[in-house]
Amino acid sequence: VLVSNHTPQAKFKLVISFFQVVNTLTPVYGVRFDPIFSSYFKSLRLLNFNEFTQILPATCAGTMRTRLIFTVTIPFGIMFIGYIVICIHALISRETNDTSDLKTKLWGRTLKFSIIFTYIVLPGSSGQIFDAYLCNSFKNNDMAMTRSSYLAADPILSCEDDSDYTSVLRLFWALFVIWPVMIPLLMFGLLWKIRRLVRAKRTTPLAEACSFLWRDYNEGNLYWEILDLYRKIFLTGFILLIDRAEGATRILRLLVATGLSVLYFGFLLRVRPYKQAGNLDFAFVSNILLILCFIFGTVLHFCEEDDDICKTYIATGFNSFRASLLVVLMTMVMLVIILVFLCVFAIDAIHTPSVRVVNTGSKPNLELPGDCKFHAFFSHIWSTGQAKTHTAVRKMQLFLPGVRIWLDVDELTHVDQLEESVNSCVVIIIFYTKGYFRSKNCQREVYAAVGADKPIYLIYESDIRDIEVMKKECNKYCNKGENILDKVFANDPIPWLGSSNSIFAIESIKLVSLAILRHLPFYLRVPGQLEKGVKIGNNCNQVNFPSPVD
């Protein structure tokens, strides 16, 4: 739940993208930092995650052709091992013998793992594929002013009229299409497939499996991740197509990269694709720092060989050491920001208040009956109540650690399993929003709860006077067999104030928590423990007004 509140996923992607681009300043853009910082920049390469594609040193992998094959097959091999681990874990932790449910969960988990893993290794793998295209040019005759080009990753291969290199080049183009071109397009296809579901705020196993690609963005910017992925691949790989032989010795690539980054920053500023303002601010900072790194990299091209040129065209007293130091500072700013975020995250995890039983001062006993897998089933209508219900559930999980709540976005694999899911829960919580009782699926859940004699609690956000409207709607649409109305409203409806002041929100959470705890085995045996209710943190005492309030 803390992960959901702080959304570290978006920040993780921004940090990884920043360092994967910065780490190409030397091999792709030809930026040579002052030797005193060489160890620092080598340590930053760990954030490239090239370990997934470079298990063997280049000298051990053999020819360039063999290296290219390893570059593609090793990530697939690691993914295959990941699939085996996921399958074993699913088989060990399975709770039912339903094979269709198991297959759906396995498929969703393997797809999600594939997307995340591919996202991480794609820039590194693409960069290694481009090693087969990057050539260095050397003078071979000063008098005739002629030059020869050799493959930078394997100087034995000549980039001019070499049959061995021709076969390597053919393999390069094949892998170029498969990795940096097709994989983002496949991700785009997945997003295209689920676009209506996401915009309608509906949850399916496929939409949940692809959530790494869309969850951080507004519904209108569903494909932003694909745009950002191609930007990153361009800056780390595609840009090598510019001035193939001598691009690393000139500043054209740096100028193009700076221009693209400025254009992307303006687009980011205009579109504002992120759901949370904190993630948008983080994206602004990372792009500004990246633009500055490209600018200082351009400065280093002037300063690395001749300090006089640096003083003439840049500034007096400026040299390669100071330019390198500025790039180091930019990267350190990013590292400090992420460390501060991790500290805040850890402090929140330690100090977040939780529900406690007033009588004992201890955390509640959440023992489940033998025939139930969840403490509560949260029922809601997708069209008007999905976002509110999900927020309510996340807050419940935050303040009542260990509570198991059935929620469609987390548990639903097939709609025809709703009745079975209701039976697996101790308490049924109906989050009422307009039109709830008109929904056929909501009616199924209500009928299943009444049929299984489950305790039902209704929570609502509207005015207390609207309870009569809820009863009329329930009586009109839920009239199958027994008196559904009496069952649904057997317990007093609970006002949900989670969207208002935090003090009132906590009171709502306490009421819902108490409703769940009352029906758990431990408190059915010793109901007196809940006599004084529950508390969260240092609750304020009741307020007494000095005079009557009219």
What report would you give on this structure?
It is a single chain. By secondary structure, the protein is an alpha/beta fold. It has 22 helices and nine strands. It has a five-stranded parallel sheet, sandwiched between helices. A two-stranded antiparallel sheet has the order 1-2. Strands 3-9 form a two-stranded antiparallel ribbon. Strand 1 (135-141) and strand 2 form a beta hairpin.
SSE layout and pairing:
Blueprint: H1 2-6, H2 8-22, H3 38-44, H4 58-61, H5 64-93, H6 99-130, E1 135-141, E2 146-151, H7 163-199, H8 205-209, H9 211-214, H10 224-236, H11 252-271, H12 277-303, H13 307-313, H14 320-351, E3 355-357, E4 374-379, H15 382-399, E5 405-406, H16 408-411, H17 418-423, E6 425-432, H18 440-451, E7 456-460, H19 467-477, H20 484-488, E8 494-495, H21 502-517, H22 521-525, E9 534-536
Parallel strand pairs: 4-5, 4-6, 6-7, 7-8
Antiparallel strand pairs: 1-2, 3-9
Give descriptors for this structure.
550 residues; alpha/beta; two-stranded antiparallel ribbon
Number of extended strands: 9
Give the uncertain stretches in residue-range form.
1-5
Described by strand count, sense and barrel closure, the largest sheet is: 5 strands, parallel
Number of helices: 22
Report the average pLDDT across residues: 83
Strand fraction: 5-15%
Oligomer class: single chain
Shape descriptor reads elongated
Helix content: 55-70%
From the N-terminal CA to the C-terminal CA, the straight-line distance is: 42 Å
**Strand arrangement in the largest pleated sheet:** 5-4-6-7-8
Which structural class should the secondary elements be placed in? alpha/beta
